Amino acid sequence: MPELPEMETYKALLGSKIGGLNISAIEIGREKSINVPVDKFTMQVSNQAVKTITRRAKYLVFQLQNGKCLLLHLMLGGWMFFGKEEDKPNRTIQVKLSFGEQHLFFIGLRLGYLHLLSPEEVEEEFKKLGPEVLNPDFTLDAFHQLMHKRRGAIKTTLINQEVLAGIGNGYSDEILWHAEIRPDQKINELDDQQLSRLYHSIQFILKRGIQQGGYMENPLYIGDDKTGGYQFYVYDREGQGCSRCNSSIIKSEISSRKTFFCPNCQQ
């Protein structure tokens, strides 16, 4: 599932591709991927310029000229491709937004969606989300105060979107490896030094993820050399050597989520 660095990468790249352009045509291949009837969606989105693209947690918001918003959540398996019709991937397209001869294809939206909402409705969707962890206002002190109220396994806490916004299964393992903390350790058992280390690891890993273009396998467009440059330290590397101590990385399950960690480094 795309997480904060992947959506931030999409935001930056799409901003340079479609920012300010008019949506010239729309095709809906799967009506369940949108939230209103096709004719209403088409009427309110067609011929609208994409004013800005913003990110909140794992969402993107396409703000349209008429004040409406398109709220995107890719969920599990969703991705996008931008290009000409002849260049599109050989995959089922759920939604297509056209910008003249170039198109933005939404692919793999079996669970994901592109909803047409007002700004107020978008804010309502975001109401339960936790703080943006890369926001300058989210300080070390703020993190300590937030974590001191929590219980349960640290991995489960990191991926809870109502606690911290944008971290998912993959980067939570990366963060905990970097902080040298076991994913099944109870958060109320962490001392202040461990919590401080965890905060700095969140900052380091997510910023590194953004700098390297996240881990999405598929490029956004032909010639895209940014998307997918992130190389995992531990996630999905079961049986491989830890880059810090060379012990074998193991896989376990925490709250029904596959979890990867180094049993030697992470205590």
CATH fold category name of the largest domain: N-terminal domain of MutM-like DNA repair proteins
- Top CATH class of the largest domain: Alpha Beta
Shape: globular
How much helix, percentage-wise, in residues? 25-40%
How many structural domains does the protein architecture include? 2
Mean pLDDT: 96
Instruction: List the total number of helices.
Output: 7
What is the topology, as strand order, of the major beta sheet? Answer: 1-6-7-5
What proportion of the residues form beta strands (DSSP E)? Answer: 15-25%
| CATH homologous superfamily classification of the largest domain | MutM-like, N-terminal
Distance between the termini: 27 Å
> Can you summarize the main beta sheet?
4 strands, antiparallel
In N-to-C order, the SSE pattern is: HEHEEEEEEEHHHHHEE
Please state the second-level CATH architecture of the largest domain.
Alpha-Beta Barrel
Structural class: alpha+beta
Question: How many β strands by DSSP?
Answer: 10
Computed CA radius of gyration, to the nearest angstrom? 20 Å
Task: Give structural notes.
This protein starts with a helix and ends in a 6-residue tail after the last strand. The protein is of the alpha+beta class and 267 residues long. This is DNA-formamidopyrimidine glycosylase family protein. Keywords: DNA damage, DNA repair, DNA-binding, Glycosidase, Hydrolase, Lyase, Metal-binding, Multifunctional enzyme, Zinc, Zinc-finger. Belongs to the FPG family.
